[in-house]
Design a protein that fits this description.
Blueprint lengths: L1 H6 L3 H16 L4 E4 L1 H8 L6 E5 L3 H12 L2 E5 L4 E6 L2 E7 L1 E4 L8 E4 L2 H6 L9 E3 L13 H7 L1 E2 L6 H4 L2 H13 L2 E2 L1 H12 L8 H12 L4 H10 L3 H4 L7 H10 L14 H9 L4 H10 L4 H15 L1 H5 L5 H8 L4 H10 L3 H12 L10 H6 L6 H16 L5 H11 L6
Parallel strand pairs: 2-5, 9-10
Antiparallel strand pairs: 1-2, 1-8, 3-4, 4-5, 6-7
The structure holds adenosine-5'-triphosphate.
């Protein structure tokens, strides 16, 4: 079993694993591989990050590892957790713990515990699996029927109050369901629906909600989890305006056609999903969401840009708009906001113009710089700026193309010495 798991590892992950296996065989504190790596090994899919639990001092073990393999350790003393980043790998080493939730949505009170306690505090049975490194011929510890759930393809909580204790598990459940192509086990689905209906998501801080959204956005296909979150009424508990049915259609429209070909999700990023989610909201609602999820700067920026672009839709649809006017309107917005708006506007002409901007106009500018103009004899000052702007317009309109054209164009417009 252990050899098979080891053979699925490489590089820094393999070094960490071997180092801890060696130490586990020599010391008295049991060390376990837990959660995701055991689950993924059983599923036969690539193992991502390694997670270890020690019935002892997790942070001490992480520091010991860092001394041997190099890397940096971050410790969270309150939870006895530590993360080692070594080369390309990120390893969690945590002290086995018992958790008690003082009230729904609050962070748990934590005390050191056994591996059984640690497995019992986990989110789903498929993650409550451990492989002891201490034994010569270890067997997987499966106290909650996780292996059976993996066979049946279901996500199951470990106790009825699980979602209430920690509503972030609502987001986690749909994320694993969509990542693995599993189903929520029927009772788990009932408990999830009840927790959503009872408003437990409201007890989560903005940071915790955003963290779960970030994890969803890190998945290969975030739109699947976001769609499911919309369908189950989870998004509308973040903000009522996210509950409208069109949110799902918008996510589909955003990714339409981007999962084929070598380009993969061309241009689709965390920010474009965020932009698509808020697309139809009012500015006030958008600001409320920024506040609710403690949106980081980049998220706030794209949300506000999408709002702003929407307010300029009429100008972008005008009949007589020139290429340089188009570039003037769109030029200050991020590529993500422009992409979201291009895919979601109901006006085909606006979509076409934004595509023209992104694919062509955005890359057009004069070859000559301010210095070149000075060398040609233009005097420093407002005149220089005006000529550069006009030269850019001329390039966008196509009346000037080569660098030679540009020089001629400038020389024709330079104030003559006696003027
Ligand atoms: P993977 O499970 O593939 O590692 P991930 O990186 O999203 O996915 P993490 O969020 O790092 O997972 O969680 C690692 C493990 O910690 C999970 O397998 C789970 O057992 C446990 N865990 C994380 N969050 C919770 C939670 N809110 N409640 C209970 N257990 C959790």
């Amino acid at each position: 079993m252990l050899d098979a798991l080891e053979s699925g590892l490489s590089g820094d992950n393999l070094s960490v694993f071997r180092c801890l296996r060696d130490r586990a065989l020599k010391q008295s504190h049991p060390i376990y591989v837990v959660g995701g790596p055991v689950r993924d090994f059983l599923l036969g899919v690539p193992i991502r990050d390694l997670d270890f639990v020690v019935e002892g001092d997790g942070p001490e073990l992480a520091r010991w590892l860092a001394e041997r393999l190099g890397g940096e350790v971050r410790v969270h003393p309150r939870f006895g957790t530590s993360t080692l980043v070594s080369g390309s790998c990120r390893v969690d080493v945590v002290t086995a713990r018992k958790e008690v939730y003082p009230k729904p949505g609050a962070l748990p009170q934590v005390t050191p515990g056994t591996i059984s306690d640690d497995l019992a505090r986990r989110d789903f049975a498929i993650n409550a699996l451990a492989l002891p490194l201490t034994e010569k011929r270890p067997e997987i510890m499966d106290l909650h029927g996780g292996i059976d759930d993996l066979r049946q393809g279901v996500i199951r909580i470990l106790h009825p109050k699980s979602f209430e204790d920690d509503p972030t598990r609502i987001f986690r459940a749909i994320r694993y369901e969509q990542r693995l192509g599993f189903d929520l086990e029927p009772d788990t689905l009932d408990f999830l629906n009840a927790a959503v209906a009872q408003g437990h998501i409201a007890s989560l801080t903005g940071d915790r909600i955003r963290h779960e959204l970030e994890k969803i956005l890190d998945e290969d296909h975030p739109e699947l989890s976001l769609n499911k979150a919309a369908v189950l009424g989870i998004l509308e508990k973040i903000h009522p305006a996210l509950g409208e049915k069109e949110a799902v259609d918008r996510l589909d429209a955003l990714v339409a056609g981007t999962h084929t070909g070598d380009d993969g999700q061309k241009g689709i990023t965390h920010l474009t999903y965020i932009g698509a989610l808020v697309y139809s909201l009012s500015e006030i609602q958008a600001e409320e969401i920024i506040h609710r999820i403690s949106a980081p700067g980049a998220w706030s920026r794209v949300i506000r840009e999408v709002m702003s672009l929407k307010s300029r839709e009429d100008a972008l649809a005008r009949d007589d708009i020139s290429s340089s006017q188009l570039a003037d309107i769109v030029g200050g917005y991020s590529a993500e906001a422009v992409l979201v708006f291009a895919r979601l506007t109901k006006l085909p002409i606006v979509s076409e113009r934004l595509a023209l901007y992104s694919e062509r106009l955005r890359h057009i500018g004069p070859a000559l710089t301010g210095n070149d103009l000075l060398e040609l004899g233009v005097l420093e000052g407002p005149e220089l700026g005006r000529l550069l702007r006009q030269l850019r317009e001329a390039k966008l309109e196509g009346t000037v193309s080569t660098e030679e054209d540009e020089r001629r164009w400038v020389q024709e417009r330079m104030p003559k010495a006696h003027e």
